[in-house]
Amino acid sequence: MDNMYYFEALPAPGCNRRYRLPFFKFLPLVTLVGQAPDGSDKYRGASNALCRQSTTEIHMISHSGLFPLYPTVFSQVTGLVALQTTRSGGISSPPWDSLNLGLNTMDDSGRIYENYLHLCRFLNISAEAIVTSEQVHGTSICRITGPGKVSGYDGLITDRKGIYIGILTADCYPVLIHDTRTGACGAAHAGWQGTVGRIAYKTVHAMKGAFGTRPEDCLAWVGTGISAEHYEIGNEVARQFDSRYLTPSPAGNGKQLLDLSAASRDQLLEAGIPALQLECSAFCSYRDREQFFSYRRDNGSTGRMLSLIGLRPSA
User: Smallest Cα–Cα separation from 122: which of 106, 141, 101, 149?
Assistant: First the structure.
């Protein structure tokens, strides 16, 4: 039996209030996504202008139990897999419930592997085609030319079809980039240390050097991480950021609230990606506990979401 899909659209950041639209059954008049998860074009149609003006991601719900986020900025690129998983749809037990994809957690490795297989069946891709890194909160970037795992890198880039590069997070920010001219893709892990080191900017620069990427041809998305209202930091970290990303904590304890999403967004803009080709998630990993893992909220005992990007072989 075919899946039945429903969508949730959220407003772009900058609104004073966060609105949720009711779920609606898919109709051509309100088509918001270019492709079904399996890569087919059966949901292509209508205009993407509505997405750009009012949403930053589409939350797809299906009978598979998976609830990934699909950035609308990528929705018109045929054959592109670009998403961030949420915590639903897997088999892991609490506190990793349920779609935990982080092998660096204390969860059972067999369950994590089964979670990967479930996601891959949903997307109609091979688990071996997903490439991730043992992330170290640095700024080293690896050019991926084939399947496998790497270690020590927080940025991955590739121009190979059928390879899907991934970033694992649970409060840090994933950054996904696609070059519409060459087909190259980039993914970056932007925690506070990587952001200080300008990992988002450096990933665009690495794509430029490796593939001849022109920033004006790129689409980019800063995914879901911990929002500024919940990310309190001490002065040792705060002094490494420009004041425009800091707000005094309402707790009155001398600490600051840090907006990591805005910092990564600005790095992408500085790298030359046009503002209209860049979006940021409206979700918060800390606040939206039913949908996302959060290392800070859950005191380290939690799972990991996977943000994935790559072109299908047929693209």
Answer: 101
